[in-house]
User: What shape does this take?
Amino acid sequence: MSGLISVSAAPRRPKACSLAHVPLIAIVDDDLALRQALAELCEVFDFGSEVFDCAESFFAAHATGRFDCVITDLNMPGLSGIGLVQHLAAIDAKLPVIVMSAQTDPEIGARVQRSGALAFLSKPIDDQVLHRHLIAAFSRGARGHAV
Amino acid sequence: MMELAHYASESVIVYDLDGNVRYCNPASESLYGWMAEAMTGRNVKNFTIEPNSGGELWRKLLQAGKWQGTVRRRPLHGTEVIATARYHVRLDDDGAPLDVVEYSAAKAPDIVSQAIKDAAAVRPQKRAACWQFNIHRARSLLAGIDAAGDAAEIPEWHQDRLERMLAEVRIIDINEEAIHQFGLLDDLDRLLARPIANLWPEDSRAMLGDLLVALAAKTDAEAETRLIPSLGALRDVELTGWRAADPRCADTVFVYVNGTLNAPSAVRELEASQDRYRNLISSLPLPVWQIDARAAGRIFDRLREAGVTDMAAYSEAHPELVDLACEIVLVSEVNKEAIALFGASDRSELTGPISYVFAGTPGSGRRVMLAHFAGVRNYVEELKVRTLDGRLRDVLLLVTFPVPGERLDTTIIIMVDNTARLQAEARLRQVQADFTHAARLSTLGEMTTSIAHEIKQPLSAILTNAQTSLRWLSRAEPNVEKATQLAARIAESAQRANDIIGRIQDMAGKRAPSRIRLNLNDVIRQCLVFLRHESDDKSVTINVELDPTLPDIFGDRIQLQQIVVNLIVNSIQAMKPSEQRRREIFLATSLHDSDGVVFSIQDTGAGIAEDHLAQVFEGFFTTKDNGLGIGLAICQSIISAHGGTIAASNHPDGGAIFRFTIPADTPVVDLVETRVA
Assistant: This one.
């Protein structure tokens, strides 16, 4: 897995949606099982999602306004989660990022907050907690969003 | 057997179990004066006067398997022969008695010891040199001189007449004391039948001659005495001579030399050195055997004369040679350590034929014999010996053979008990295994972050999938299909977690090193996966350059992983965040001299202090606060076991470099020293 192979699955769209706009979440994690699990969770939330195995392939697919939120792992080969947040802050400041990690080091948490991420969640992630943060992310974005 | 017996200087007779002669060798012909053909078929009772108590001896011999003692024989012509004989019963392959072998050699008539006892009664003396001469061939000269001379004065000798006369006087026997006193280093055999001429000190030859003349003229066995101021190292010497009383030994003359030792004297020195030697041997804290191997030496001489040069081949073609050698080579002395080693209660249980020494290790007797034949000074072998109470013990056998110029009857064997050493080696192996195990665990201790990380991945996936399933199932229309799919994914993740645990257990478990063909690049990649979290966490960049043409090596995958992990972790820890800006590791593999692989790892840390460089691989050397200091020592011993070397150095731009090489495709030796065969 040292190469930067771009992997992105076809976007999932929920069958029924009550919103005019179905939020699209970018899921960035180098672990396949977790990527899939998060995508399935987004689906049962009735959100859309696209998965990426690394920050680079996410940025390749990024276009302003395309995604409503990004969920990213902290430790990845190549650009790390924090790097992703910092780079995104430069090119698309309004796009909220939720960072997750298996690490519990409080110093890491502080660094993540300083980088401008919306939230820092520890793995294993609780679905209700994630849902709450995703809703917060959409409402923040929605303020600047043309409905 | 028969062919070899031909060469023996002792008489060898083989009897069947009833005591009938089957074979006798040339030496027995000359000893007993009979022809081999005449003897074959005759029963031992017919020609043995003593011991002969109606076959009692024979029964006892067959029961005990061996016997030794004095025999009196009735030869074909002439007088009785007294011989010392050793018998042993030979067994066939099933252990049943086959036949009986007798080795015998002439014993000088008891007259000598009797004479010594007589003389001792006359003149109480602890030790005296005693010679036994045969003057038969000198008779004419003695008579002539006597007629010409005057017994009252010291006659004038014509030197050449004296020399000629003494040249005809033959030595029949001589005791130990005479050998010492006269400084004779030769083997008794080589003295026998030689003329006395050159062996008697020059300044007293005339006196000896005079004594012999007088004795020759006598008709009785009364003693004659001559006084000499000095003889060799003695002064105030009394030469006493007498004719043998027994008319069967008409030409036998005994000469007894008694005097006071000069001080200082070579003889006293010799005696003192003999005493020191005896004391040394008896008080050495090691089991010592003193061996008389002259009989075997004589056989070797004869074989060499007969053209045998390759004794190894000869003994293979004649396996009975070894058995013969072990029978005729005799243990003459043992010290108390030897007695204790073999569980004996008395030295007599260990003296006699040497065969018991080699009984515990087949082939060892042959090897010692070959060393003897080759004329080496020392021979060493690891040996198992069977003690008298049947135990098998491990010893180191050390043999020292005498060389010409030394007493040829003194072959020395020392045995060093190896049992304790081998037990200690086994314990050492156990400790090393424990040590390696501990090292694995200590490396693992440093890996907690990575392990926790690795396990959390599948656990996260499991939790999320489970929660998602619950949501699907709690909808107004439960989506069972989704739930099923997610349940399957949960199972997969659980299995993955299990595999990770298994890998960790492998690292922690104590295993014997395994040797499989593997590629170091694969090993490194696995380690990098395992360590990725560690390096990312500490913000260290690992630059990897693996030579794709790297040849395979033989090794233990887990051990090699352990080394690579250890070196990488060390490098990471060497670049503490507070001190460094640039935290990079350069890891590379390449071909080494076309027959091995090289692994090198360089960091951008502070490097290794110059005066520590020599010690980094020593056990318990560490510069870390919490370090145990065994990681690199273990690395070095694993690399050595793989036939390679590891070294540490500093890069000119700063930072340390660790480099190891492993030869390609060579079988690997055990971590523990292999035993010498």
About this structure: Residues 127-143 of chain A form the longest helix (17 residues). DSSP finds five helices and five strands in chain A. The beta strands of chain A are 24-28, 48-52, 69-73, 97-101, 119-122.
